[in-house]
Amino acid sequence: MKSFAEERQNRVLAELRDHGRVEVTELAAQLSVSEDTVRRDLKRLAEAGYLQKTHGGAVALDAAHLPWSTRADVRTAAKSAIGKTAASLITPGQSLFLDAGSTVLSVARQLTARPLTIMTNSLDIAALFTADDTITLSLTGGDWNPDSRHLTGPTALHTITTRRADWAVLGACATHPQAGITSTTPQDAQLKTQMSHSALRTMVVADRTKQNTIAPHLVLSPTEVDVLVTDDEHAATQWQEIGVEVLLTATAN
After folding, report:
1. Domain tally for the chain?
2. Which of 46, 93, 114, 188 has its CB surrounded by the most CB atoms within 10 Å?
3. Could you count the other beta carbons within 10 Å of the beta carbon of residue 203?
């Protein structure tokens, strides 16, 4: 027989599956328990790897469908470690496509090589370099998506087709060593694919929550990935076995 704690925690997980995030005050009211009890449940579930605690609540670790403001708070230490490792591969004088996403934003924040030429469809990434005269910065243009805070659509896609770069640095909604890199929307998939095809090399940055998962829209086949940067040791081995260069970071939050 399940304990009351197990039943509560299962209900919390059900709320996360349905809504992507939960709030302590709302859960306390729904479950007829104190907020301290809910916080203890969230702590245990976070330790078990089911969720990421946030101020006042928690979010599901499978965060591809969440708004940008929520995704940006998920596994920040892991993303920072991945970003630092990925940024170390970039050398002075190179040109980059930087995809829109919270992990790629972590890469952008830790780029130390100068000068660089950067094209991005992310206003958050572009804002990092507006006062840096050692960066030649371009935006793709296109239609503004307020939920994911990036530019998309035919204009963005056309712009990318006319440019070339040394690296495409891409985030991922899902990665799988057989299915490849996949995305939750066709528009996002098209932009990522074109960035990769317009670059000499493609680097995918994805933490363990994205590994061995599949989204509906294909971005790249497994063999089209040149470098994968992740904190998932098991996934690292799987990708190395198919010939992809993998950089493994320390596991964090």
Report:
1. 2
2. 188
3. 23
